[in-house]
Design a protein that fits this description.
The protein has ten helices and four strands, in the order αβαβαααβααβααα. It is mostly helical. The protein binds 2-acetamido-2-deoxy-beta-D-glucopyranose (2 copies). The site of one 2-acetamido-2-deoxy-beta-D-glucopyranose has 3 residues, from loops.
Amino acid sequence: MIKLFSVLLVLFSSICFATTVDLGSTFCNQETVDINRFTLLLSNHLLFDHLDKAYTQLSKKISYQFRDAIQVKVKKMKSTSITSTIESKQSVLIPPVDVQILKRQLKGAVGSFVEDKLPAILSNRYNTTILQNQLDHLLYQYCPSKMTQGIVSQQCLLDNLESFLTEIQRYTSQKFQSTLIQINESDLPKLFEKTRAQIAGILVHFNRHTMDNNYHRLELKIKSTHKTRKHWITPDMIQDFINTINHKDNEEETNIRHFLKLST
Ligand SMILES: *[C@@H]1O[C@H](CO)[C@@H](O)[C@H](O)[C@H]1NC(C)=O
Ligand SMILES: *[C@@H]1O[C@H](CO)[C@@H](O)[C@H](O)[C@H]1NC(C)=O
């Protein structure tokens, strides 16, 4: 045990020596980290490798639910006109537009309408430009020295790495949980209403110009399960989102030590 300790000590002091020589510094392990560069690399990694993915997955799920909720039905009209029975029978049997194709197109329209609007909703609720500042703030809590110069010692950062990572995780989890709850409660009901109105408008157009209204009418129906409970974002979806934004410090190109190396 003591032997191991002395070996480590020798090893440590030789690293120390190398560092000292490299930097021309008089102290051991005084290598410093450019905080601005470090938190920029880290926040870009969180935004582009994690948050973008989480947003895309969430958008797809919400879009799927909206498509499922907004249904288009073809209503056959009881013919009251005085056309011959044969003629009316034929028209009843053969709707003038292929309704299945139309329904698919309308579902596609719901999907793209929703996926188009969601990014703005998300960025209104969480402005991603504050992430880097937030990381700076968390970091200075552990390594306050030399704060004014925008540098901290690399050793301090390494000593506090676990706590720092835990704090980031705590911050992003809490922040995005509350963000998603706000979106669920306030933005999605409005977006659903807008989407419904958009599709209703398209149906008016089709009914007027394409369908023979003596026989068929397209109608919009909201699926009954979505009428009563509008759980657009469920606790499971929030959990998935949080798991996706979590930084796992195990990838070669995107771990903290790699970012540190680029920032010293
Ligand atoms: C986010 O904040 C920055 C800086 O405060 C601002 O310039 C930008 O317009 C904001 N973005 C959104 C989407 O509000
Ligand atoms: C989402 O909103 C609905 C309706 O307000 C609510 O019942 C549900 O609990 C909310 N989901 C979460 C995860 O807060």
